[in-house]
Amino acid sequence: MRSDPPLAVRVEDLSITYRTTFERKPTLKQALVRFGRGQRAVKEIEALKHVSFDIRTGTSMGIIGANGAGKSTLMRAMAGILPPTTGSVEVWGRASTLLALGVGFNPILSGRENIILGGLASGLSMAEVEERADEVAEWTELGDFIDMPMQTYSSGMSARVGFSVAVHMKPDILMIDEALSTGDAHFREKANAKMAELRKSARAMFLVSHGMASIEEMCTEAIWLDHGELQMRGEPEEVIGAYMKFLKIKKSGSSTEDM
Amino acid sequence: MTAPSRESQEFEPVYHHYGPHRAGLPPLVPYFRELWHRREFASEMSKATMRGANTSTFFGQAWLIINPLLLAAVYYLLVTILQGSHQPALFTHLTLGLFAFNLISTAASTGATSVTSSGKLLINTAFPRLLIPLSAVRTAFFRFLPTVPVYLIFHIIFLPRVWHPVMILSLYFLATMVLFSTGLAAFFAALQVYFRDTASFLPYFIRIWMYLSPVLWLPENIGHMSKTIITVIELNPVYSMLGGYAELIQENRIPPLSLWLTATGSAIVVALLGCLFFMSREREFAVRLT
């Protein structure tokens, strides 16, 4: 019998609870007003409950589930952004994450400066970042815009920068959250091709998407989360099927995208 | 120099283990190892911010010199009008104190907004968050540096005979101020995440604090004040830092031991408390900043 490939990620009995506020912009004034009324705006969220799984090298894993099911929290936990409340996460490799798209990291800095900062923050050395910055900049196809402040970018343009940084930092483990929903057709195509390439070179890939077709197309395995609990793990078709059944929606051509 | 332990990891898979934080704090040794490893990020962020801040202005980087000069001019006018005459000693004291106090207040105010303004980077990347306020302290320090030659020119003009090797010791008090600023920057950065109006209160807080510090007045001017006010002033950590700094530079006198001890002690305590408070809250930043 052939031995299994080594582990890339192991999640053991992972629970994540955090407290957050339901105010858009928490202010001291609001806090005082609430204090006077004896209320609190802090809510405790049990985002993940006792989730366990392990992923072997070579897997690309799709994560599906309704909004608020804990998909993004799981990605953040694996990336080390949100440490566990209980349980543990082990990751073999350097993770590169693309969890939130949209406006650039720091709007007054240029695209190129943001690329360099993103690389340095993720732990690369200055030499490594400089070596890659031109490649990243070229991939975005932004031309002269790359040296202009990111506040002058359209949302599609900053999405390109974000995606390009994430995929060019030679990640061992790539985590992408809804990346394919932004950008024009040309960018989507290019991003898909790049991800297919990375699937071969990276040790593991995680993809969160509401687009069932992209999960089926890109992933070798899938897990389904619901209210922070792991419902099912298996072949993408199987898991998607069960999820669809759960949602009581007949799987048809028109409903497979954007669930 | 990169720590050797990381060099060897280049050939093996980098292994991460994330477990629950003990007492709300991340494991300190790996935390500070990662922090050191990514120090270039903090300095690059500070450099980029400084470049970005003045690029759209006419004078560009020259503002780093123009700002302290204008500040000194405004206060020169103020002192001359209030005192009714040209007061070189008071004016040089004022510029020295003002520039040093600005180091602390810039660190506190840029530190306050540093975390909330780097939202996307924070949500996307795992790194020791303390790097962000540290980068703000670096920015404040590099804004302070151009004021040093400006002050030295005033010193040459107005205090030409006050030069002595003990002036070098003032660097120690400068270091305590930087350490103290680090604690403040970290503290206000974390507070701003919870109360977004912290940065709006801060200027008033800083203004009052400046009046309680020996910036606009000399320590010998407050003898006639009530006991309570003097106690409040002496409890102000900046009193000993600025006091020692000014005494060495402008009177060439080695300050009493008590001043050294209080300056050192308060800098260490504030830096520790500020950073620990920040680190105990940083887990929540990723969910609070969406």
Set down the secondary structure blueprint.
The complex is a heterodimer of chains A (259) and B (290).
Chain A: E1 7-21, H1 28-37, E2 42-56, E3 59-64, H2 71-79, E4 86-92, E5 95-98, H3 111-121, H4 126-140, H5 155-168, E6 173-177, H6 185-201, E7 204-208, H7 212-218, E8 221-226, E9 229-234, H8 236-246
Parallel strand pairs in A: 3-7, 3-8, 5-6, 6-7
Antiparallel strand pairs in A: 1-2, 1-4, 8-9
Helix pairs in contact in A: 3-4, 3-5, 4-5
Chain B: H1 4-9, E1 15-18, H2 28-37, H3 39-54, H4 63-83, H5 88-114, H6 119-124, H7 131-144, H8 147-158, H9 170-194, H10 198-211, H11 227-235, H12 237-250, H13 257-281, H14 285-288
Helix pairs in contact in B: 3-7, 4-5, 5-7, 5-8, 5-9, 5-10, 5-12, 7-9, 9-12, 9-13, 12-13
Describe the protein in words:
The complex is a heterodimer of chains A (259) and B (290). With 259 residues, chain A is of the alpha/beta class. Chain A has a single domain (7-246), classed as Rossmann fold (3-Layer(aba) Sandwich). Helix content of chain A is 36%, strand content 27%. In chain A, the strands form 2 sheets. Chain A has a 6-stranded mixed sheet, with helices on both faces. In chain B, α4 (63-83) packs across α5 (88-114) and α5 packs parallel to α9. Chain B has 14 helices and 1 strand, in the order αβααααααααααααα. Chain B is globular and about 65 Å long. With 290 residues, chain B is an all-alpha fold. Chain B has one domain (27-49, 62-288). Classes of the chains: A alpha/beta (259), B mainly alpha (290). At the A-B interface, β1, α1, α2, β4 and β5 of A face β1, α3, α6 and α14 of B. β4 of chain A pairs antiparallel with β1 of chain B.
